[in-house]
């Protein structure tokens, strides 16, 4: 019998050149006595790394309580266009209590860390410096979980807009708690309560209205409310997040930004998830590899090591990784190169398969 007939008996109407979804292929395979295995790129990469003796999940699971140390929360700023995300990130940058009079962070490396005085303790907070949920989504698509808390910026003179809703949907889908920054409260006609009201429809209910979301009125333009906003971030982190990591092992993390620099070659800003990254380490980030020649912080100061949630600019990669690519420290240069090369081969194969993604019954018959 032809496959079309088999499918017909299974209750699927199909023509010989039609493409089928994964479920149908599985049913068809089962009917004909084949086991169909659809492998995700993540699973494939996991297997690839296991071939080098690296099982990152098992490694995390094996960590004991005593090995874990507190780390900074990692924050992404999201919201509708022109509601003030870039301005807010600028104001926060200037609020670093350590840099103080120096005028704040001047280097844009894709992420930065500020220190904030909270309840008499100076604590670090890390910000992803590419505002908007595009970056957030792109990173999530690569399986990177780099955000602990989302700041949702809503302009008080404009209210909840389509991208506001998109942003909060993304955060809620990823289970990332939201702090709402009602911005532009300096403007005439600004109505923060209207925003509070609007957001109740999306399950964001402010604490003073009996909910559990922190709302803060700010003016990114005037630098007003920034301390309160940073307090809210830390309170939100302390209320429900277990932000700890083991700093005493080879670093694993994510590249959040990367580009080709005329003088320095491929540069990547990385965020360490666990372990400590050091100058001299052999690393692989996506399909890029190399040895860390030098690292710099957001003040362009050279640093020797980066602990969890500490963003650093890394120099020494042979090529530019993608934003959201994970990175790991490998045993040596050779291992790093081999992992990168295997990934590259896997990527090429996936590209080829994608071009022929729509497998038709004809293909199936030939196989
Ligand atoms: P983004 O598109 O969300 O990054 O928005 P921007 O940060 O670029 O801000 C858009 C515009 O709003 C700019 O002209 C800012 O100067 C202005 N803006 C941002 N924050 C405030 C604020 O707190 N008050 C006022 N009055 N204007 C602001
Ligand atoms: Mg902007």
Automatic annotation (TrEMBL):
Annotated protein name in UniProt: Translation initiation factor IF-2
Span of the entire protein shown here: 340 to 706 of 915
Signal peptide: none
Keywords, alphabetical: Cytoplasm, GTP-binding, Initiation factor, Nucleotide-binding, Protein biosynthesis
Main location: cytoplasm
Organism: Demequina zhanjiangensis
Subcellular localization, as worded in the UniProt entry: Cytoplasm
Residues noted as binding GTP in the record, renumbered to the chain: 79-86, 129-133, 183-186
Function noted in UniProt: One of the essential components for the initiation of protein synthesis. Protects formylmethionyl-tRNA from spontaneous hydrolysis and promotes its binding to the 30S ribosomal subunits. Also involved in the hydrolysis of GTP during the formation of the 70S ribosomal complex.
Protein family per UniProt: Belongs to the TRAFAC class translation factor GTPase superfamily. Classic translation factor GTPase family. IF-2 subfamily.
Segments forming domain Tr-type G: 70-244
Gene Ontology molecular function: translation initiation factor activity
Tagged with keyword Cytoplasm: yes
